[in-house]
Design brief:
four-stranded mixed beta sheet; about 500 residues; binds protoporphyrin IX containing FE; 21 helices; about 5% strand; Cytochrome p450; three-stranded antiparallel beta sheet; alpha+beta; 9 strands
Length: about 500
C-alpha cells in the first residue's frame, strides 16, 4: 500500500515538473497537494522576471498557494493602493511578523527584525543619530576620503595595468570600508590595489543568499536542515560566527577606547564628527534609566551594528553596480551626465545641483531595486483596497523589481532607462510617491539611510564619470543573483581607461 502511495506521489511530482517547465507563459497552476510550489521552484533561477510576468498578467495581485501541509500561502501585491494601505494607512495591522523574525534570525533584535516597542526604540535612536550634525559631517568627510584614498588609486592602477575589474566587487569594497568607518569608526581598507580577502564580506553575502533560499522552501524543510547542520544552513551558521566575531571585537575595542579615552574622545567628537557606535555608547552613558542602559548590552549593540551593516553596505553597492551596467548600455545618458558635471565646480559641495545624476540614479533604483522583496504579516482580518480578504498572520509579499516594471504603474516605456522620467519641465527632480517608487520603502518604516546612500552614490558617480571610461567585457551574462539583495550573479566586468 505504502509503495503505491509513493508511486502516486512521484507521478504527481513528475507531472507538475513537466508542466512547470513546459509552462513558460508565467501562469502557475495550483496542483493538488503540492499547490504552486513546483512552478515556483522551477522558476527560482529567474524568480524576479517570473513574478513580473505573473503579476503583469494578474494585474498586480496574485495569491500564491504552497503545499497544503506547509501553511505557505502568500499574497503577492504590487498594487500602489495596497502598498499605501499596508505600509502607511493601516500600518499597525501589518508588522513584519514572527515568520520574518525566524527567517532573519541572524539580525537578532536589530531594527529590521523587530516590531512595536523595540522597533520604536531603534527607530528613534537611529533617526536621531543618522540625522546628527556630527554624524553628517563625519559622513561627508569619510566618503570623500574613501574616494580619494581608495577608489581613485585602485582605478588608476587598473587603468595603468590594463586590468579587468569587477565593478560589483569594487563597489562592495568601497561601501564596506565606508560603512565600517561610519558605523564602528575603523577603516579595514578592503578597497586597495592588493585586493585583500575579507571574510566578513563573504559572510554577509552567504547570509543574504541563505535567507533568500529560506523564502522559497517550506519552513519545516529549512528548519530540518538547520537542525541537521548541513548544506546551506551549515554555511549560514559558519557565516553567522564570522559576523559575530568581527562585530564583538569592534564593540570591545570601542569599550576600551571609551574607558581610557573618555576626555580625549569628547574633544574629538566636538571637532571632527563621530561614528554611530560611539554615539550609541555615549547615549547609554548619559541615560539614567537602568532599563535602557541594560538594553544597550553587547548583544543589542551587536544586533544594531549588524543591521546597519546589512542596511548600508550591499544596498548602495548593488545600486552602483546596476547603475554603471545601465550606463554602459546607454551612452546617451553618460554624455548627458558629463555635460551636467561640466557645469558643477565642486561636486563635494554642490550635490543638490546634480539633478540629471539624481534622476539617472532613481531610474537605476527603479529598474534594479537593491532590496527586491519586502514582506509583512497581518495581525487581524482585513480587506485590502484591491478587494483581497486578509486573515490573521497571512504573509504579504511585495516584489520591488516587478513593481518598477509594470506598465500600469510606470507607462509603456517602463523597461527603458530614462532619467528624464524623474525631471520636471522646470528642471527639478520630480517627486514620485513612495507607494509607487517603493525602493526605499514607504510609511513609518521607510529607509533612514536614503540621503546617506545618495551622498555616497553621487560622490562615486561624479568621480568616475569625470575621470574614467569603462569598457564592458563582451559576452558576459549580467543577471540578478538569487539572494536577499538584487546582486549580480557573476558581477559586472569592465576594463578601465582614464578619460582625457
Ligand atoms: C541605495 C541604497 C538603499 C536602499 C535601496 C535602501 C532600501 C531600504 C528598504 C527597502 C528598507 C525597508 C526594508 C524592510 O523593512 O524590510 C530600508 C530600511 C532601512 N534602511 Fe535603507 N536602503 C539603502 C541604504 C541605506 C543606508 C546607507 C542606510 C544606513 C545605514 C540605511 C538604513 C536603513 C535602516 C536603518 C532601515 C530600517 C528602517 C525601519 O525598519 O524603521 N539604508 N532601506
Amino acid at each position: 500500500m505504502e509503495f503505491h502511495v509513493i508511486l502516486l506521489l512521484i507521478f504527481i511530482f513528475f507531472l507538475c515538473f513537466c508542466y512547470s517547465f513546459r509552462n513558460k507563459n508565467g501562469v502557475p497552476t495550483n496542483w493538488p497537494i503540492v499547490g504552486m510550489l513546483l512552478p515556483l521552484l522551477a522558476n527560482v533561477p529567474r524568480i524576479h522576471d517570473w513574478i513580473t510576468e505573473v503579476l503583469e498578467k494578474y494585474q498586480l495581485n496574485f495569491l500564491f498557494k504552497g503545499p497544503w501541509f506547509t501553511n505557505m500561502e502568500m499574497f503577492v501585491t504590487l498594487d500602489p493602493a495596497n502598498v499605501h494601505y499596508i505600509m502607511s494607512k493601516n500600518f499597525k495591522n501589518y508588522p513584519k511578523g514572527s515568520k520574518f523574525n525566524e527567517m532573519f534570525d541572524v539580525f537578532g533584535d536589530g531594527i529590521f527584525n523587530v516590531d512595536s516597542k523595540l522597533w520604536e526604540y531603534h527607530r528613534k535612536m537611529a533617526h536621531t543619530f543618522i540625522g546628527h550634525p556630527k554624524f553628517n559631517q563625519f559622513l561627508h568627510e569619510k566618503v570623500w576620503e574613501k574616494v580619494e584614498k581608495g577608489l581613485i588609486p585602485v582605478l588608476d592602477h587598473a587603468s595603468k595595468q590594463g586590468l579587468v575589474v569587477d565593478l560589483q566587487d569594487l563597489f562592495s569594497r568601497f561601501t564596506f570600508d565606508t560603512i565600517c568607518t561610519l558605523i564602528v569608526g575603523s577603516d579595514l581598507r578592503s578597497l586597495s590595489v592588493d585586493w585583500p580577502n575579507e571574510p566578513f564580506l563573504k559572510a554577509l553575502d552567504d547570509i543574504e543568499e541563505v535567507i533568500f533560499r529560506r523564502h522559497v522552501v517550506p519552513m519545516s524543510v529549512w528548519k530540518f536542515f538547520r537542525w541537521l547542520g548541513v548544506g546551506k544552513e551549515r554555511k549560514y551558521k559558519e557565516a553567522w560566527e564570522i559576523l559575530d566575531e568581527f562585530i564583538y571585537k569592534r564593540i570591545s575595542e570601542k569599550r576600551s577606547e571609551e574607558l581610557f579615552k573618555q576626555e580625549e574622545l569628547k574633544h574629538k567628537e566636538a571637532s571632527v564628527g563621530v561614528d554611530l557606535l560611539t554615539l550609541y555608547m555615549d547615549q547609554a552613558q548619559g541615560l539614567s534609566s537602568t532599563n535602557v542602559k541594560n538594553n544597550l548590552s553587547d548583544k543589542l549593540l551587536r544586533d544594531t551594528i549588524l543591521n546597519f551593516f546589512i542596511a548600508g553596505r550591499d544596498t548602495t553597492s548593488t545600486a552602483l553596480a546596476w547603475f554603471f551596467y545601465l550606463l554602459s548600455k546607454n551612452p546617451r545618458v553618460e554624455s548627458k551626465i558629463r555635460q551636467e558635471l561640466d557645469t558643477i565646480m565642486d561636486t563635494n559641495q554642490d550635490h543638490d545641483k546634480l539633478v540629471y545624476v539624481h534622476g539617472a540614479l532613481c531610474e537605476a533604483l527603479r529598474l534594479y531595486p537593491p532590496v527586491a522583496f519586502e514582506q509583512k504579516a497581518s495581525m487581524e482580518s482585513d480587506i485590502l483596497p484591491s478587494g483581497q480578504h486578509v486573515y490573521p498572520n497571512m504573509q504579504i509579499i511585495f516584489n520591488l523589481y516587478a513593481m518598477g516594471r509594470m506598465k500600469s504603474i510606470w507607462a509603456d516605456d517602463c523597461n527603458e532607462f530614462k532619467p528624464e522620467r524623474w525631471i520636471s519641465e522646470r528642471g527639478n527632480i520630480k517627486h514620485e510617491p513612495s507607494y509607487k517608487f517603493l525602493t526605499f520603502n514607504a510609511g513609518p518604516r521607510s529607509c533612514l539611510g536614503k540621503n546617506m546612500a545618495f551622498t555616497q552614490m553621487k560622490a562615486v558617480v561624479a568621480t568616475i564619470v569625470r575621470n574614467y571610461k569603462f569598457q564592458a567585457i563582451q559576452g558576459q551574462l549580467v543577471v540578478p543573483d538569487i539572494s536577499l539583495m538584487l546582486r549580480m550573479k557573476n558581477g559586472f566586468k569592465v576594463k578601465v581607461c582614464k578619460f582625457q
